[in-house]
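S., here's the first fold you wanted:
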Amino acid sequence: MDWSTVTFVRLGYNPLVTFAFVELSPQLAFFEIKDCPISNFTVTPQTYAALNALKKWDGDTDNYAGFVVTNNILTSSSDCAAINGQIRSLWATSASYTISVCVASPGTSSVDPSSAPAPVTKAPLTKVPSPSSGSQKSGNDKDSSSGANTGLIVGLIIGGLVIIVLVVLLIRRHQSDKTPPVTAEYQYAPPTTQAYVYQPMEAEPYHSNYAIPTGGSGPFVPPRTSTGGSGGHVASSGSLPTATSIMSEGDIFLDVAPLRPHKLELADLTVISERPISSGAYGEVWLGQHGNQKVAIKKLKDQSPASVFQFIEEIKLLSRMNSDFIVKFVGASWRRPIEMECVVEYMDLGDLRNYLATNSPAQFGWDQKLKSIVSIVRGLVYLHTFSPPIIHRDLKSRNVLLDSKKGTKLTDFGSSREIDESTLTNGVGTYQWMAPEIIIGTEYTQYIITKVTTGQLTPTLDETHTPTWVREMAAVCLQNDPASRPTSMQLAAMLQRL
């Protein structure tokens, strides 16, 4: 049987007792005979070499490469010798079982050793038959030979059809195994009739505990820090999907299909720090290595389906961005969707807040600060001119990263959202960084926040050590009326003139 072009063979759980003279080639990538009671395994040298070159399959369903065997296979040595074969061990160093096969010499007839007929010798005839008897015998021989040939042909045809059907079934099964799922590979609490498909919510008043208006049946989602931004015409409909419109956690469907093109091989990604290089309320960042590149690996502390759902949406958004002023997305990594990790480029100087705290004004002068401000504004211009536009909503010093060679970049898009003009004051974030009109739409009642919203309290700047252009730019950005504040593009134009 010629299977020399076959790359995938799966025969597991079949009552298969004989596997003999099937031609396989080095193209073979996967061979599985799980729970097959094989007692006769006979192959040619070429097939033996192709099988023995396979390594034990590691169970990775994204990469079917190797062999699978779950029981001993002991081919009869006497039957093998009857066809001039040789008993050899298969996968001797990697299999957990004893696999002895009969390797037939080249030119051996394709007869199963267990069914090989006993040798027969024919002596020469000593009596010459009479013409009549010879003619009769010749006729009988012809009839017998004709009948035998007919039976052989019918048997070969039936056998060939059976083989073709088996090959077609194996190919279809292989293609079915290789076909990626069209939705998610993992669902939390699997009632598929309730699988959730996200649709944007209408605006809801912001509550300090971010409670879900579902009568107590929905999951609690902690607030994420964000800001309303300084642009006069930027609006937002809410953060990335946070499952806030889902009735229960059993409905949350973790769809990782869009991330498959960005999935990194687990073997290529290594954590090289002993502790997180950054840690917050919801996640932590570890220093890692991907190939010859240092990377930052972001992991969630809370692995609830609601948090992972939002994290996946953040990664999907980040994967679409490509700017010198946005932290570069490297890929995503997971064994199970609930263990999702986001991998981005490593910025060696850390975040702006820590950098300001650990470096004096002399070490980090206004010429360097100007470069960082320009990069931040250009990052906002990129987001606001995206198609569709994106609002960051969490722009603060901790979400600005610095690098000695790559400069200043924006990060953390967990609260970011594509703009929807239908809602302008969806308050997602911490009040310190919100625009006044965002705070008004929330239930924050602190006295100091009231003063900010009414314009009675504004930040002050050190006039002695702060350049005039900084004070002037801050003054217009802190206007209480959003229409009086400049857009990111207007800010970029102002900085261009410096």
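And the second, which I think is the more interesting of the pair:
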Amino acid sequence: MKAYTEKSPRSVTQKHSTMSSDQQKPRSVTDN
């Protein structure tokens, strides 16, 4: 149960991180 709970927030964090990266990627390209 502990591992599952730890994996849950981890997945959420990863999803958010990917979203941020995706938004920053095109932004950086536009800046460039």
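Why I say that: DSSP finds one helix and no strands in the chain. The radius of gyration is 14 Å.

Talk tomorrow,
H.
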